[in-house]
Amino acid sequence: MIKQLILYLLPALFLFVVATTHAEYAPSKAVYDVTSSDPLDLTNILDRVSLLQNLYGNNSFDSKIVIVIHEGTIPIFAKTKAEYSGLMQRAKSLTFGEIIEFRLCITSAKLQGYTANDFHEFVAMVPMADAEIIMLQNNGYAYLR
């Protein structure tokens, strides 16, 4: 009986400890380099970005998260790709807190046959992903993939 009670309560105790134990992180700046053509990879990035935004308390004065989109991720952000509309709604919703921005490499897009008008309005166009990432890192952004 006691053994069963322990086995029953142990997972609940573990979840309680995990839920109530957290480190304090000061708001900061991060740039995510996103290149994968797999929508599941983008979903995982959006999950991580959302968690980081919440961890920073949606503090737009001291934190900023920029997602730089290029290479294989470009087509996912095209307006004509209806199969990704739910993913794009989620991405757009992350921009409402003013901490998260999406920036898309127009050079990479043009090489794939797209123009700036082919993408959702919440995505900013930048001339070159690599140069954008370097500029952000020079301005104190931590690099994440």
UniProtKB/TrEMBL annotation:
Domain of life: Bacteria
Keywords: Signal
Keyword Signal appears in the UniProt entry: yes
UniProt xrefs under InterPro entries: DsrEFH-like, Sulphur_relay_DsrE/F-like
Signal peptide: 1-23
Keyword Magnesium: no
Protein name: DsrE/DsrF-like family protein
